[in-house]
Amino acid sequence: MEIYDYVVIGGGPAGLSAAIYLARSPLKGIVLEGSTPGGKLVDINRIDNYPGVPNTSGTDLALALLGEATSLGAEIVYKRATAVDKEGDLFKVSVEDGSYLTKNVIIATGLSSLSKGLEGEKEFMGRGISHCATCDAAFYVNKETVVLGNGEKPLSEALHLALQCSKVTLLFEESDLKGSEDSIKALKENPKVEIITSIKPLRFVADEKRTQIEGLEYEIDGKITLIKADGYFVYSKENGPLALLSSLNVEYKGNFLIGDPETGETSLKGLYVAGDAKQSLLKQVVTAASDGAKAGSAIIRRAAAGK
Predict the structure, then answer these.
(1) What is the mean pLDDT of each run of 10 residues along the chain (307 residues)?
(2) Domains of the chain
(3) What is the pairing mode between strands 252-253 and 81-87?
(4) CA 307 to CA 299: how far, in whole Å?
(5) Burial grade of 93 (CB within 10 A; 0-12, 13-18, 19 or more)
(6) C-alpha dihedral sign at 252, 257, 261, 264
(7) Angle between helices 13-23 and 285-304 (to 10 degrees)
């Protein structure tokens, strides 16, 4: 079996950025992508904060990254990675119909947000519904928004929205806020934030032509209520790379892999992480691209040093 110098798992901005750097080297490797190149980019209607590319769609940016990577010689293999295991000094990356042996692996799988499964949620994603306040808050300056979810991420996202929105309504199914003491205190003291607990979300209501959302319907105290807003931010559990790496002894923080700030290398030599799967404060396209560049460069430096 051929032994590769690297396998990049994930064809989003982190994985494609790594591929751009690695493709310019003499190293041999592949990028595994199980669905559509671009990752979460393809679900983003508009991106305003990627340097040098203003007012672009996520799909256009994804295609640009893919085009640059392949033009430099990056090999994209459209197969889904199912497991990463150690085999001696090498890694074995399994796919549906076989496996690859490699000296280095970059985990650039991102974090897939699990849908709450509400009617209209998938249909209007990117058209009034979002999973990322950091990405989309600028579209709702001085407007009203709803945050559906509980836990540190939705709480911090609600606080971020409150900086720019006229009102933020935080809805969740539990009876108490779940998060850090600082976030809970800040939310309760913010006059622009309304907190509604113990609700059961039902569906997103659209107009007759299903061109836009008219509100979020939920049940509380046995009554059905419709809340209207300009934007809706929905948060549920996120799937990380834990299942993919279940046989490996590697350090995590929650769902996130811990990687070296300068290289992205994890606690396991030769295993790198880049993008949203990495433990970091900011999760944006630009930081994912930076992570990919660092990880790819680190592998090239290691190869040059004969390690």
Answers:
(1) 95 96 97 84 75 86 94 95 96 95 96 78 90 86 96 87 96 91 92 97 93 95 96 83 90 90 97 94 90 98 90
(2) 3-112+238-304 (3.50.50.60), 115-234 (3.50.50.60)
(3) unpaired
(4) 9
(5) buried
(6) positive
(7) 30
